[in-house]
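Predict fold of Nucleoside-diphosphate-sugar epimerase; 324 aa.
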Amino acid sequence: MTTTTGETHVVLGAGPAGKTIVDELLARGLRVRHVSRSPLEEAPAGVETVRADISSADRAVSATAGAAAIYHAVNVPYHLQVEQLPEIGRAVLAAAGRSGARLVVLDTLYPYGEADGTAITEHTPWAATSRKGRMRAALDQSYLDAHHAGHANVVLGRAADFYGPRVLNSTLGGAFFPAVLTGEPALGLGDITLPHSYSYLPDVARGLVDLGTTTDEAATGRVWHLPTVPAVSTEHLHDLVERITGSEITARVLDRPTAAGPFDERFMNEYAELFYQHLVPQNMVSAPFERHFDRRPTPLVDGLRATLDWYRDFLAAQSAAESA
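Predicted 3D structure, encoded as tokens:
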């Protein structure tokens, strides 16, 4: 049994990332409060749960009171991001400034746009052309500006496309693994022969908790790339999955953003401006984080095995629920 110690670490957001961050904090014996707009069902033992909409500063301040660190993993549907994420970000930033907690922000590669896709580093220019990318870049700059002005203690951890247990709404998630396990065509996007980075969600959570717990203040006030294996082609990833499962994959590749599988028309209409990610090389480099924190990403084959195991259990539970 894990014994929780120390000050409270507050996790905002109950998606796959938020829940996996909670697991990582508990594994380190830390006291956890999990905040979500919706009710949190089946929370792990010992986790304090709070239902709150943190889009206003007052509610965010109340929900995060007494925090040592705040992990911002809140997301909203694509069609609401440009409108709602800046509002949420401002509220969370105000809460961190009020409490003095370290704010750890889970971030994306969107601010880079198509810049230097063969080796995306923390020094790659922010060259976003999409509405969502420009919004993220402006929001990220506001986080860093607040830190350097002394208004809050902030650090950003960027990840590539997620895969792993719990990850459903991803290009390497519910559109891929269930099809692989049931012999159906598995969805791929764009040019699957190009290198493309995929971040294993447990590695993302470990990296964010490293940022939230480090005593090295020089590590804050900046962007870090969270541990991610060097990019391989999605086609090569398919080959690895075939070796693990012993079954051949039939790929259904979309060369443009059209509704397919779990991605409906509204989603794809909103994702269209980001579809370039699957038409250019995208190799996110995480070597600085790995050196500084002595943290290595999970080998791709091990992450894929764990993800396949999770999806087998997930599909079995779905089948049992449908037949009950």
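The chain has a mean pLDDT of 94.
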